[in-house]
Amino acid sequence: MSFKFTPEELKSIEELRSKVDDDRALVMPVLWMVQRKQGFIGNDDILYLERELGIRAIFFAEAIGYFAMFNDAKKGKYELKFCKTITCKLRGSDELIKFCENLLGIKMGETSSDGLFSLGESECLGYCEKAPCMLCGLEQHAELNEEKLESLIQKIRQENASR
Length: 163
Ligand code: FES
Description:
NuoE_dom; metal-binding; 2Fe-2S; NADH dehydrogenase activity; Glutaredoxin; EC 1.6.5.3
């Protein structure tokens, strides 16, 4: 079933619209509403937003492509998004990604069979002095190394096994 706002959500978007001069100011809060509820914003969802809110699809698509916290497809419960920009590369992010791929048994862009982890890439996370960096959901992890990565993955597995 594709994404739909509730009447209450549509009302709150319209309230927000009444406070801004340009509808493009709604793009980020609206995308965040979809991301929070569904975990991703697909092409069908973008077209729904365009139809429902009268805001051009390209504005939504650009924001999804640019900001690391938005996903354009369904992901695992935890998405590990590695910074692929130069400082992190120079500090070993490629090797760390390979290590993580081996640990999880999946390649970049894939999701583990238990649906727990996805691997993704991001542009600079703005934390270059503590490279290499990664997002796990909305949480930023810096000065990463193999030990830190392994213990994070173990912790997540344990937490989810006991639920
Ligand atoms: S280059 Fe990775 S955080 Fe900036």
